[in-house]
Amino acid sequence: MPANRSTAVRRGLAVIATLPLLALAACGYGSEAKDDSAKANVASGAKKIDGLDSVKIGYFGNLTHATALVGNQKGFFQKELGGTEAKYSVFNAGPSEIEALNSGSIDIGWIGPSPAINGYVKSNGKSLRIIGGSASGGVKLVVNPKKIKSLKDVKGKKIATPQLGNTQDVAFLNWIADQGWKVDAESGKGDVSVIRTDNKVTPDAYKSGSIDGAWVPEPTASKLVAEGAKVLLDESTLWPDKKFVITNIIVSQKFLTEHPKAVEAVLKASVETNKWINANPDEAKAAANAQLKVDSGKELPADVLDPAWKSIQITNDPLASTLNTEAEHAVKAGLLEKPNLNGIYDLTILNKVLKAEGEPEVDDAGLGAK
Questions:
Q1: Are the C-beta atoms of residues 250 and 101 closer than 8 Å to each other?
Q2: Helix intervals (H) in the chain
Q3: I need a surface site. Which of 22, 72, 121, 161 has the fewest CB within 10 A?
Q4: Which tens digit of pLDDT belongs to each residue from 209-245?
Q5: SS3 of 74, please?
Q6: In this entry, which stretches build a coiled coil (predicted)?
Q7: For residue 42, which of 93, 95, 85, 87 has the smallest C-alpha distance?
């Protein structure tokens, strides 16, 4: 790629990584979760952790953020935080959540790998740490079966991804390159037309025929299937052991340094939530859907919820080696200069919690803070 093209792409990505997505986030950086039960559930007379009145938690209204959805709905976070209120904000995309973390509007968040990488690199390693894992999988290439019957038929078609430079966009561009096809990363033009379309709009775009398919996370993939699309490829099949990070837990470095006990309480609640989800999948699925209804006013129908839920693996492991690979894919696509990710992880508190719970510790793939 010529130097001027590469610079233009990186500038475009930088804009995306810093915009607060005014068109998507109606209330500041993110919409406050419409659940006012947390205050009521703060135990009367309970001790505040680190003297904090509240811990501000961010997440997306996606099933790939099931830990946060279920932990909120079932009160796991509030239980561990005691007299400190768990306050929630719901985001539509990673850039707005990173901006909220940087501004102090949230303290801890559930987020995808690409915005975590972008946020860390843009701040020269000073803004955030990844402190835990949450989910693997839940991303699929779904297509119009009348137009695309095999993987080779994707060439020449219009395929949607959620956003330029987001986790699924990077994955799709990498897959295209592996097929030997050429696409300009910035414009999305080439042997495949990559159409950046917000997940909320993608089902309507599919129904109108303006796209032929999409490389998207759940539940958008299953929404498209409910409209007649077919799953052509599950991204998990492209990864060793069929595992790759789709959701991590991040914290601002300032908050981590000043309030480690609060961070430990949230991570303990996350581990407890994940244990409960994996032991009670049907109840957990219902709880996640109930929280989606609270947050958005609309729950998912069974024909979308059930297949989407099955494709997501809930895990405490941040799958650090796959994050490093995803960063390499972004570099290969021309969306990122080779990043220095040393120090992006601090899994010390998580491993302390896991050890206390008798669970195996997790690895930072050599990218841990010193």
A1: yes
A2: 3-18, 37-41, 66-73, 76-81, 94-103, 113-122, 167-178, 202-208, 220-226, 253-258, 260-279, 281-296, 302-310, 320-333, 348-356
A3: 22
A4: 999 999 999 999 999 999 999 999 999 999 999 999 9
A5: coil
A6: none
A7: 85
Instruction: Identify how many contiguous H helices and E strands the chain contains and give both numbers.
Output: 15, 12
Q: How many residues does the chain have?
A: 370
The torsion angles phi and psi of 63, rounded to 5 degrees, stand at -65, -25
CB atoms within 10 A of CB 360: 11
Is pLDDT above 70 for 200? yes
For 137, the token pair is: 């999988």
Residue identified by tokens 């406050």 is 32
Structure tokens at 329: 């894919």
- Residue 326 and residue 209 share a domain: no
Same domain, 288 and 351: yes
Q: Within 13 Å and on the Cβ side, how many CA atoms surround 12?
A: 17
31: part of which helix (H) or strand (E)? Answer: strand 31-32
Q: What are residue 282's phi and psi, to 5 degrees?
A: -70, -45
Torsion, Cα of 172, 175, 181, 184 (10° steps): 40
Domain-ending residue, one of 242, 265, 281: 242
Give the 3-state DSSP-derived string for 148-165, with helices as H, strands as E and coil as C: CCCHHHHCCCEEEECCCC
Which residues, in sequence order, are CB contacts of 216 under 8 Å at separation 6+? Answer: 139, 140, 142, 160, 161, 162, 168, 199, 202, 224
* Domain of 85, in residue numbers: 3-137+243-356
For residues 365 and 267, give the distance between their C-alpha atoms in angstroms, rounded to a whole number: 20
pTM: 0.87
